[in-house]
Known about the structure:
Chain A: It comes from Tumebacillus lacus. Chain A: Responsible for channeling the electrons from the oxidation of dihydroorotate from the FMN redox center in the PyrD type B subunit to the ultimate electron acceptor NAD(+). Chain A: Heterotetramer of 2 PyrK and 2 PyrD type B subunits. The complex is a heterodimer of chains A (260) and B (310). Chain A contains five helices and 15 strands. Chain A is α/β, with parallel strands linked by helices and 260 residues long. In chain A, the strands form three sheets. Chain A has a seven-stranded mixed β-sheet, with helices on both faces. Chain A is globular, with a radius of gyration of 18 Å. The model of chain A has no long low-confidence stretch (mean pLDDT 93). In chain B, the strands form five sheets. Chain B has an eight-stranded parallel β-sheet, with helices on one face. A four-stranded antiparallel β-sheet of chain B has the order 5-6-16-13, with no helix packed on it. In chain B, strand 11, helix 5 and strand 12 form a beta-alpha-beta unit. In chain B, 55% of the residues are buried. The complex binds flavin mononucleotide (FMN) and FE2/S2 (inorganic) cluster. FE2/S2 (inorganic) cluster (FES) binds next to loops of chain A.
Amino acid sequence: xxxxxxxxxxxxxxxxxxxxxxxxxxxxxxxxxxxxxxxxxxxxxxxxxxxxxxxxxxxxxxxxxxxxxxxxxxxxxxxxxxxxxxxxxxxxxxxxxxxxxxxxxxxxxxxxxxxxxxxxxxxxxxxxxxxxxxxxxxxxxxxxxxxxxxxxxxxxxxxxxxxxxxxxxxxxxxxxxxxxxxxxxxxxxxxxxxxxxxxxxxxxxxxxxxxxxxxxxxxxxxxxxxxxxxxxxxxxxxxxxxxxxxxxxxxxxxxxxxxx
Amino acid sequence: xxxxxxxxxxxxxxxxxxxxxxxxxxxxxxxxxxxxxxxxxxxxxxxxxxxxxxxxxxxxxxxxxxxxxxxxxxxxxxxxxxxxxxxxxxxxxxxxxxxxxxxxxxxxxxxxxxxxxxxxxxxxxxxxxxxxxxxxxxxxxxxxxxxxxxxxxxxxxxxxxxxxxxxxxxxxxxxxxxxxxxxxxxxxxxxxxxxxxxxxxxxxxxxxxxxxxxxxxxxxxxxxxxxxxxxxxxxxxxxxxxxxxxxxxxxxxxxxxxxxxxxxxxxxxxxxxxxxxxxxxxxxxxxxxxxxxxxxxxxxxxxxxxxxxx
Lengths: 260, 310
Ligand SMILES: Cc1cc2nc3c(=O)[nH]c(=O)nc-3n(C[C@H](O)[C@H](O)[C@H](O)COP(=O)(O)O)c2cc1C
Ligand code: FES
């Protein structure tokens, strides 16, 4: 837990905000982890908001200079967060949870992001590129006015964009890009986004490409104590049970996730 | 008057807590997660999550929703069942050398009795806390905690099989909290904890549906504090067993309010979600308050809001 100073805070698309802080001391993180952020110090908006880590500036670890997230303003709490100015401090817990697992021998990875599930792909692309894995990003949005981070991702490799209304890139869904030919070139996929997208990606990749899904669930504590954030998963013994998105996830091996 | 040191210890029946702060059941898991943030041995005691005879999966999600000054939850008592709790969750708590209170729940009197009996085989249980805010499936689903007769019945049955103190946790969703308190005291309860959550609801305007999957949920956090303080104030004057007060405690000042209302000890729940260090900060805050106000023993403040000035 730390009070971090806001270094950058700006709108990058309609109601989509970019927020960068001073990095906490001895920062340890993996892409896909989240920060648990208080939007006010008072008790009006009590619960923290889980927001995925998007990008870490600097050399990593203790040498990190800044840590950035992107979030969507979608309620009174995030509306308050948006009002925070550069120089102000925020109460931040984390990074929390289990992030994406990187596999050293991978030659090509597909990064699949939908809407506010796109941000974690940036740091992931950075780290994959560093270890020599080629990345192709496939990102989807409702429409062009809420599209984010396309430029950032294009620094690492090809970016394929889909929008529901066709106002940017292909009209359709991220899965429309997932041809047999493309999948045949991929060693791994990483996906984060709304449940319908994750379900479609899981089905598309099943038996073809191994990968990970990053899930979202409403949280209480964010540290595994309250059982608010459970999701159905296939357990090691084959039975279906609940896992905690905050502590066991948010990233799960794709075949383990059981969608309702 | 200056005091150099504060006697923070309190007694819940035969159990001594070195300070008046415990955790509220369901808000602290089985302690593990918070042990990453601080040494749990600073706590007055630890109260762990509700345990049932069989494992329970709990309710569908979303299970929580933020509300003004608080939150709603309907976790649905998800827990691995008493066997696994005894085998895997309780033993590691011993190393902190603080009393362990185990919250028990059930849907019949027999359920409660069976869980308690099983817990008696464990050396790691210092008290049981009976969560009576559960529906009695043999009585048309009416909560044990809303009927003095049923509350007394379950208390008596547990007392008969428990060799450790029995703390009965009252539901605030009643017309007459004093009648409930008197009923469980007469049935042999060694202490009372109060309050459990207030039944509430919040609706999503876009979906036109309740914000949590279960529909209704339990309201906790600062929003419930005035209700909890009022009930503690009333019950403390009507019974002679100790009270563990809770409901919306975020700060040391909140905790002291409960103690002045008549609580012997306090429990911190929702605050742990907001600030994982809430408990140690509150403990230190209480000590500091006493130092600043020349109070030699925290027990001197108990009931100060209604006791005659000495
Ligand atoms: C997520 C959550 C889970 C809870 N689970 C339990 C439980 O298992 N057993 C119980 O007796 N009370 C349970 N409670 C109630 C709390 O122990 C406490 O009585 C209530 O939340 C009021 O205190 P607070 O405002 O400090 O949270 C739960 C509360 C919350 C918020
Ligand atoms: S949010 Fe509390 S357990 Fe996940």
